[in-house]
Amino acid sequence: MEPEYVGIDLHRRRSVIVRMSPDGERLSTEKIDNNPMALAAAIAPAGPNPKVVVEATYGWYWAADVLAECGAELHLAHPLGMKGISSNRRVKNDVKDAVLLADLLRLGSLPEAWIAPPGLRELRELVRYRTKLVQIRSGLKAQVHAVMAKEGVLPGAPTCSAPAARPSSTRCSWVTATGCGSTRSRPDRRV
Asked: Does residue 55 contact residue 9 with C-beta atoms inside 8 Å?
């Protein structure tokens, strides 16, 4: 017996699952609320080793893990490649998207993306998260420097996080040399 083809249009809260026979006959269409038990129950009628396709969209990791545990041969559709295929359709809905995914897999013309193993996925997420935090930190430093520049204050060290990099006697030498710029003489101004 040949394995069935399953197309899953995965969303954040709900998904549409379409099962197809190897000759393209639609066997079932099911809408589920996203949780591992519901997904496993929806895939079970497809047999022991169905060929399943999911588009690489937000939150596909959990679905990939559940499908792998169920013994499915998982394929990940590349979103950019799918955009080129599905952009010329007049009618677009979740059921038609799931049917298209299953048909493309069945016909061997699915634009596929690489599925990273779970350990590598976790490492990649950590790197992405750290990169995002570094970008936020850099933006905040730039904002602080902009506020300081508006007040005519130059940062005393290469970064705001290292104020002790210069001796305190030279840090504010321009205030004592010119006699101006002190925030104490202007209580309405804050830096």
From this structure: yes
